[in-house]
Specification:
Blueprint lengths: L5 E8 L8 E8 L4 E5 L6 H9 L6 E6 L2 E5 L2 E2 L7 E5 L10 H5 L9 H6 L1 H9 L15 H13 L5 E5 L7 H18 L2 E5 L3 H7 L2 E6 L2 E7 H6 L4 H6 L4 E4 L1 E3 L2 E4 L2 E4 L10 E4 L4 E5 L5 E8 L4 E7 L2 E7 L8 E6 L4 E3 L12
Parallel strand pairs: 3-9, 3-10, 7-8, 8-9
Antiparallel strand pairs: 1-2, 1-4, 4-5, 5-6, 10-11, 12-16, 13-14, 14-15, 16-22, 17-21, 18-19, 18-21, 19-20
Length: about 350
């Protein structure tokens, strides 16, 4: 069965008094492709996913799965009839069933006992996800990572053509998260299903989404392939969505930008109306230099290098240094990577330690 696409047309959804969470949202995931939703808390990411799953009803607009309108004026298809796979970060396994029975739960006849353990689909997923020797155990006998892989296997077992993931790795520790992310990315790429994933983690969005949509105040403000969004976003929201971002006020003059960091070469010609430039911390090098204008506020080790928070002419910036810099010391800042013009207010990356 070929995968169905996902489409939201002018969808509005609110909860109680106040402004709606989604405000005329338009969003589309082409059949057999993957889209990651990024955005700050309250931007409507999880609400959009729940509308596709059928766990919420839109107040206005339409939701489509393939050629079928599943929610909208005069249309409603309940979640159990939508044929989608849904995995939340806290979707626990049934405690009274074995792992095999949990994985087999959505299969025809809901196999139990030996039938579940020997079911070809159960064993196929158990092998892929490293669970084959655990099929007789109950969830209480599994580690957190094993339970999460079991929940993923249960979601994938019925072979849905549409998969919805809501922060699927958020509750896992970093080591387990990396392993499961690699497994999940491989499964998605091989299966050809349509994937909509909600995440707050840039690395997960880049790994799982062929395209990334950035939500802000209930609308998509930017959408692009992950590499394009990271390297050449067009909005401040897009710049911040994929990691730490220095946004500096800038004036375009010919083929260059005039900034507090000096005159920087422009990378493209269609951003002349922008009033800020993006400089990623990895592209801003800090070097100790007595008498320089920039002052160090904080410095911390990241393994191979150091992150430095500095203040230049009253504006906080994040930079990279090869060695530790003392608090209060002067540093010279050098742009060693590309800069692009973006629309939006100036801001420093938000993930720096205090």
């Amino acid at each position: 069965m070929s995968a169905r696409g996902i489409r939201l047309e002018g969808v509005t959804k609110g909860f109680g008094p106040g402004a709606p969470v989604l405000r005329g949202l338009d969003l589309e995931v082409a059949p057999g492709t993957s889209l990651a939703l990024l955005g700050p808390s309250g931007s409507g990411k999880s609400t959009a996913l729940r509308l596709v799953a059928g766990l919420e009803r839109p107040e206005a607009g339409r939701v489509w799965l393939g050629a079928a309108c599943v929610a909208g004026p005069g249309a409603w298809l309940p979640p159990e009839r939508r044929g989608v796979g849904l995995l939340f970060q806290d979707l626990e396994l049934w405690p009274h069933r074995s792992l095999a029975e949990n994985i087999a739960f959505g299969l025809p006849g809901r196999p139990r006992g030996r039938q579940a353990r020997e079911h070809p689909r159960v064993r196929e997923l158990a092998v892929r996800l490293g669970l084959l020797g655990l099929l007789e155990r109950t969830p209480a006998q599994l580690s957190g990572g094993e339970r999460q892989r079991g929940a993923l296997a249960r979601t994938l077992a019925p072979q849905p053509d549409v998969l919805l993931l809501d922060e699927p790795l958020a509750a896992m520790d970093p080591a387990r998260r990396g392993d499961l992310l690699a497994l999940l990315a491989g499964l998605v790429q091989e299966s050809g299903i349509t994937l909509l994933v909600v995440t707050h983690a840039p690395q997960e969005a880049l790994a799982l989404g062929q395209r990334i949509a950035v939500l802000e105040h209930g609308r998509v403000v930017e959408q692009a392939a992950g590499g394009d969004l990271y390297g050449a976003p067009r909005t401040a929201a897009g710049a911040r969505a994929l990691g730490e971002a220095n946004l500096l006020p800038a004036t375009r003059e010919g083929a260059a930008w005039l900034t507090a960091l000096g005159t920087l070469p422009a990378q493209r010609d269609d951003d002349r109306s922008a009033r800020h430039v993006l400089v990623r911390p990895s592209a801003l090098r800090a070097t100790p230099a007595p008498g320089a204008r920039a002052r160090v506020e904080a410095c911390w080790c990241r393994g191979a290098d150091h992150a430095v928070r500095v203040v230049l002419d009253g504006q906080p910036l994040l930079a990279t240094a090869g060695a530790a810099c003392a608090r209060g010391s002067a540093v010279r800042l050098e742009v060693v990577g590309p800069v692009v013009g973006v629309d939006g207010a100036a801001s420093c990356g938000e993930d720096a330690p205090a």
